[in-house]
Design brief:
The structure holds 2 protein chains of 2 kinds. By secondary structure, chain A is of the alpha+beta class. Chain A is 36% helix and 24% strand. Chain B is α/β, with parallel strands linked by helices. Chain B has helices spanning 19-27, 68-77, 82-93, 109-115, 132-136, 140-148, 164-177, 194-202, 266-279, 297-311, 321-324, 331-345, and strands at residues 4-13, 16-17, 34-35, 46-48, 98-103, 155-158, 183-190, 223-224, 226-234, 245-253, 288-290, 316-318, 347-348, 364-365, 370-371, 376-383, 387-394. The longest helix of chain B is centred in the C-terminal third of the chain and has 15 residues, at 297-311. The chains are: A alpha+beta, B alpha/beta.
Chain lengths: 262, 401
């Protein structure tokens, strides 16, 4: 089997980059990866009441998603959405666990509904008005590869439609940070379509090969530290406008090969 | 979609371990709900707790995965010959050609909730024994299932709140349809924890009595826990007449609110329409709808509107959450098992807890057991974030005589 997709738009936000143009220059080697923390965007297009309540994961996921959709020229309401995250909202999880360990276990209802893994997908629907399906997948460090596979099979089923993949992570505060040291919030989004016209072609295939690494040690560190950054080898090819083949981390003993073609 | 053969399935809930006790309870119209005595929880509510979860160890080689949620997964997989069925499929197809897709909302979060009571008084550190990846993380139960079954194909946890373990069927259908795999183990495992019990309490959505879906006096949910698994594969052309099939799957989003359904049930209707379209059938071809039917005032109203818009009052519907409780991320899988039992054994289950359907709700709601053939059944699962999924199961492939 080979799943096919065509890349129509990309969004990126993370430590040292506030959008795809900046991330692209870093990946092309034209700009040094910088060490600055992820600048959290305001959660646009949400009602004011919701805007105040959403966590870091929702903010980066929505920002990357909006950027990718704008770049694709599509309407978000026409795109099925595949969200992936190795965790969910770490700050929110910590706050709930602290209250549940206290004498008074009254947790906030907003914290509770924001604790679901699919909170970014839910807020995406509210922000964009999209009533298309929204998945929320977790395969630990292989979460973005699971999302690429899901997007590819959605396009195999409906080649005339479009899918947006949003891979996002947000860190836990201590004491969970010590057990799962995600350094910062990050999100990448890719709008993909089926068919053979427009955009850059991707071919996806499972493989036993080991995942590729990145030559730049700072980018490689980012790839290793943040599950969503396991997409960086693919994004590097897309940034450079090159054709080629990369093997992305997925599960133990199973990787996802992506061929980037014309 | 190409129909998928359900070649083996099993379900463990508060109705009992495996399909036998579940069928007995359904035919006796019995509820498994009981006053909440779970852990240190002090809430005036009923829960559907699975007996014997804590006494079910995980295999020693997978001891790092030990937590209540994975014990429930282990308990569920051990019923109805499921382990043997998967082993035979792995031998036939190869472990690499079988995917694993498991729905859960909270995975093993209970371990972390308890660990937060035992933080180091000086440093605040959590106990070193807490294995975040293999217990707390959402992926834990999917990884545990894959390793337990010795499978080596694609794997993911699906976590879209209460639609999670319905969506796994749709994912498997796409993966098999695209030729990525030949078969999949799909299911849902969600266990009781403090986050969901106190969380639904904070939303004032917990009933103080056993839940009463569709009843005029319904006043909230009863939380349950469950594990259910299915082996699905591309069926042979000459499958036996009594074979059970996944015929269709459809999903949608409400685009409305994080914890309240679309007031007109529009997202629900879109998911049901998509499921019917994917099965290539019309509403009149459905004999029974197992509703999401959580028994909160607003959820049942919204679902009633969505179902009525498609089926009017022409199809028998009800919710079995009065029997099992709301198993959250495992609800889709548990109710898929109930729909399959209804088809296999020819009955529409009762709706324990429902005394009289709310006259303001319009679908044809059945409160008592009815013995009659069920050719095709739909199962609805809707969750926080406005995530909706509907599935269609049948005893024969759509279009076949």
């Amino acid at each position: 089997m080979k799943l096919v997709a065509r890349v129509e738009g990309i969004g990126a936000i993370g430590p040292g980059f506030t959008g795809w143009p900046q991330a692209r220059e870093i990946l092309r080697g034209n700009a040094a990866p910088d060490e600055s923390a992820t600048a959290l965007p305001a959660p646009e297009r949400l009602p004011a009441a919701e805007r105040r309540r959403v966590g870091r994961n929702v903010r980066v996921a929505l920002a990357a998603g909006f950027e990718a959709v704008a770049a694709s020229g599509r309407d978000a309401r026409d795109c099925a959405a595949v969200f992936t995250s190795s965790s969910s909202d770490g700050d929110n999880c910590h706050a709930i666990c602290e209250v549940l360990a206290s004498a008074d276990r009254q947790i906030s209802p907003t914290r509770f509904h924001n604790s679901v893994h699919n909170a970014p997908g839910g807020y995406w629907g509210i922000a964009t008005g999209s009533m298309k399906a929204a998945d929320s997948l977790c395969a630990f460090d292989g979460s973005p590869a699971a999302g690429l596979l899901e997007a590819g099979t959605r396009l195999a089923e409906r080649p005339d439609e479009a899918v947006i993949l949003v891979a996002h992570d947000a860190p836990y505060p201590e004491p969970l940070h010590a057990l799962r040291p995600l350094p910062d919030a990050i999100a990448f989004a890719i709008v993909m379509a089926g068919g053979t016209v427009g955009g850059t072609g991707l071919r996806l295939e499972l493989t036993d090969e080991a995942p590729v690494t990145l030559a730049d040690p700072r980018l490689e560190a980012l790839r290793r530290q943040l599950p969503s950054a396991r997409l960086l080898p693919l994004l590097r090819l897309l940034a450079a406008g090159e054709t080629g083949r990369v093997v992305l981390a997925y599960l133990d003993g199973l990787s996802l090969a992506v061929e980037v073609g014309p | 979609m190409q129909p998928l053969l359900i070649s083996s399935f099993t379900a463990t809930s508060c109705l009992g371990n495996g399909l036998g006790p579940m069928l007995d309870a359904l035919l006796a119209s019995r509820s498994g709900l009981a006053p909440c005595r779970f852990e240190t929880v002090k809430l005036d509510t009923f829960v559907g707790e699975v007996a014997g979860v804590d006494a079910q160890p995980v295999p020693p080689t997978l001891a790092a995965f030990d937590c209540r949620n994975n014990r429930l997964a282990e308990l569920a997989m051990r019923q109805d010959g499921f382990l043997d069925a998967v082993a035979a499929a792995a031998k036939r197809l190869g472990p690499r050609r079988i995917g694993v897709f498991v729905g859960t909302s909270t995975s093993g979060i209970l371990e972390t909730e308890i660990a937060y009571r035992h933080r180091d008084p000086l440093t605040g550190a959590l106990p070193a024994s807490l294995d975040y990846r293999r217990t707390h993380n959402t992926y834990s139960v999917a990884e545990f299932t894959r390793e337990r079954l010795g499978l080596a194909g694609p794997c993911t946890a699906v976590s879209t709140a209460c639609s999670s373990s319905a969506k796994v069927f749709a994912i498997a259908a796409r993966m098999i349809g695209a030729g990525v795999i030949d078969a999949a183990v799909v299911g849902g495992v969600d266990s009781l924890c403090l986050t969901t019990l106190y969380g639904f309490d904070s939303l004032q959505l917990l009933s103080a009595q056993p839940c009463r879906p569709w009843d005029a006096g319904r006043n909230g949910i009863s939380i349950g826990e469950a594990g259910a698994y299915f082996l699905v594969e591309r069926g042979p052309a000459a499958a036996p007449a009594q074979a059970l099939w996944l015929l269709g799957a459809g999903d949608s989003s409400d685009a409305h609110h994080m914890s309240s359904p679309h007031p007109e049930g529009l997202g629900a209707k879109l998911a049901m329409e998509a499921a019917l379209a994917s099965a290539g059938i019309a509403p009149a071809d459905i004999d029974y709808v197992n509703l999401h039917g959580t028994a909160t005032p607003s959820n049942d109203v919204a679902e009633d509107k969505g179902v009525h818009a498609l089926f009017a009052d022409a199809v028998t519907c009800n919710s079995t959450k009065g029997a099992t409780g709301h198993a959250l991320g495992a609800a889709g899988a548990v109710e898929a098992a109930i729909a399959l039992l209804a088809i296999r054994h020819g009955f529409i289950p009762a709706s324990p807890g429902t005394r009289a359907p709310d006259p303001a709700l319009r679908v044809r709601y059945r409160t008592t057991l009815e013995r009659r053939p069920v050719g095709r059944a739909m199962s609805n699962s809707f969750g926080f974030g406005g995530s909706n999924c509907s599935l269609v199961f049948g005893s024969r492939q759509a279009g076949a005589p």
